[in-house]
Amino acid sequence: MDLFGNRGYSDVSMRDVSEAAGVTKAALYYHFADKADLFTTVALQRIDEIREAMDTAARAGSLEERLLRMATIGYERMQTDVYTPHLMAHEHLDAAHHQQLHDAMDRLQEPVVRCFEEAGPQDPAISPRAASELLAGILFSLIFAPEAEGGGRSPLPADQTERALLAIRLFLRGYWSLASGDESPLA
User: What domains are defined for the chain?
Assistant: First the structure.
């Protein structure tokens, strides 16, 4: 994935990968049908590692603490291990490989959904999955904040957890307000 990240999908050959890994091309083709299969397998492994880290982060503490730990993982790994490979997948992979990545990315929400299920009211105004998706959208917009110049998007530095914490607190305040039936504007 480092080769793909540094040079792009098109500029990496199976020979490049075999040389970097210290194996023969034949060994690569024994394990992977082609470059798309290799790329997908490695990207899926990285996404699964993020999910495992999120599962660990979601085990203990208040809902706010668990969500902040998971957001920090997102800040640290989302750009290199999910977003960039996903962009390459759109451009270079067939529909089946691309769908595998989407399915794995969807599973990244499971620890967050579980946190909302465990900490939330029995009859929430919005479902735990919807709460997870809304919060993910908010945090994603922070992770990939617009650059000051050029209009592109770049990730925030990993130490910007205060912005994530504020977003989480504001979101939870609205979530609990809805769950309690308090429809008054937030102060």
Answer: 2-180 (1.10.357.10)
